Every structure is written in C-alpha cells, then in structure tokens.
C-alpha cells in the first residue's frame, strides 16, 4: 500500500500582543534549526494596508495587524511540529485547542483564502456573491481596500457591485469586483 502524504493545514497561533512579527521570525528560525521544513511551511502575520485620514485631513497608508495577538502557520500537525510551535518564545498556545494536550482544529480553506486575498497573496474566485442591494460590505482589495460601503447595484454578468463609500466627507460611488468585497456579518 502506498503511504498517504501528510495533511498540511493552517492553524492560528496565539502570541503576546505586539510580538507577532518576532514570533514569525522565531518560528522560521526554529523550523530551519530543528529540521522541521517538511512539517512547518509558511508563517504569516495577517496585516493589511489601510488609508487613514491624518489630523490635517491628509491621507496616509498605514499597515495594521488584522488580528493582533495571532499568527497563521501552515503545517502538518504531528506531535513534534506541535511541540516546536507551542514552545516557540512568544507563543501562548493554539486557537482551537481545548487544553490538556489536545491538538487544535485547523482553519477552514474559505477563511484562509479570505485572509490571503485581503493581504494580496492570492486571487480569490467568487462564482456568485450572496449580497443584496442596501447591504454594507467591506472592500478587501483594490484602491478602496479597508473601506466599507453600502451596495447600490449588482451586475452579476460583469461580477461587479456599485458601492457607496464615504470619501473626504462625501459619499462616492465606485465599482468593485466581487472578489474585492466581503460581506459584513
């Protein structure tokens, strides 16, 4: 019988707030030094560029951590890889672990795809968007990334929505592709 390839999944690691990038560095170094490159793959701090208005009304691009205190790790969950990640300086545990030595549950593919698209790491494919005119959505890509707005029209053929956003104190309508918006639940 052929041996099955181990399942690699994404997990959420809890860190001390403000130590996310340090934990990422530590994990990447430990992955190499402890021979875990076949079990621990990517380490990502979910960050996003947002446009903020300064005190004088000027617009500035600011990088914000989407989930302070959390880091995403793509890994094959084994006793050894779990031990290496758990015992990395700055790591306080895994999200979805119930304690007492239980291993955590992985993050779903949809959740990871949404985060990766928001960061510009992958192109998200949306066959049909489950939104209605009048609903508020979050823009997760393009020039209006990080803004929220109300849907005024939906063009399913072109896979675009018209969104009314507040820009410079005025409501402005803009076209946004399906894959650049996220429904606010």
From TrEMBL:
Transmembrane segments: none annotated. SMART domains: NGN. The lineage of its organism: Bacteria, Bacillati, Bacillota, Bacilli, Lactobacillales. CDD domains: KOW_NusG, NGN_Bact_1. It holds the Pfam family NusG. It comes from the Bacteria. Belongs to the NusG family. Residues 7-119 form the NusG-like N-terminal domain. One of its GO terms (cellular component) is cytosol. Keywords: Transcription, Transcription antitermination, Transcription regulation, Transcription termination. SUPFAM superfamilies: N-utilization substance G protein NusG, N-terminal domain, Translation proteins SH3-like domain. Participates in transcription elongation, termination and antitermination. This is Transcription termination/antitermination protein NusG. HAMAP family: NusG. GO terms for biological process: DNA-templated transcription elongation; DNA-templated transcription termination; regulation of DNA-templated transcription elongation; transcription antitermination. The keyword Transcription regulation applies. Gene3D superfamilies: 2.30.30.30, NusG, N-terminal domain.
